[in-house]
Amino acid sequence: MNLEDELRSALRRHEPSPDFTARVLARVAAAPMRQAPRPWVRWVAALAAALLLAVGGLGYRQYQGERAKSQMLLAMRIAASKLNKAQKKVQMITHRSNS
Amino acid sequence: MPERAPSKADGLDFASLVRQHQAMVFSICWHVLRDRAVAEELAQDVFLSLYQHLATLESPEHVQFWLRKVASNRALDVLRRRQRRPMVSLENAPEPVAVSPTGDPMLGSALRRLVGALPEKARAIVVLRYQEDLDPAEIARILGIPVGTVKSQLQRALGLLREKLSRSLGEIGL
Description:
Chain A is mostly helical. Helix content of chain A is 80%, strand content 0%.
């Protein structure tokens, strides 16, 4: 007995029930159709995504610049206020030592 | 019938494609699943999916490859979902009641039962090898596994089937 020949015989193709084709066609007719995406749709989507990324990147850089600027101004204001206080203290000490 | 994008596959209408390939798709599902009703349902799902993807298939050979791939992989998916339920292993598979050396329907039935008790991947490999007469490289492409794995699983499956079958033949004195 040749096992491989017996397997070929045992596993030969069988037809499904006679109404198989009709049932498939009925299901196809009843199913909502999913349209295959057209090739240009992918290019447009990729272009839109690239554009969005570029605009987003520019906007983010601008936002970072503005934020750095406001932080610098705040730091300068704090430094100026500290400097004023120190100057006032020096003036008070000088005034006391003179009098 | 709803409209679909025109197919590059061939000039045949969809009904002809179904009639041409239904035995192949149904038999892959049936031999892997060992359940006629589930196999018919799954084969219908495969053709429904074919209808939706027909515009992307480029030739009749591509259609046939696609059908084999989708039928095999979906049948394996069904088997994996069934794994939660208790399964009969090859060792515990029912023995054939009577077998004879060649061309006997009882031997065929026993072999189908033994194939149905193989591990899922090995089962699909054996079905594609002996039902569809595909070589290991084609089976590897369909199942998305290395050729070496196909060859080793096939050898192991044949060894198991041979051992189980000879034990059955010995028991009934053939």
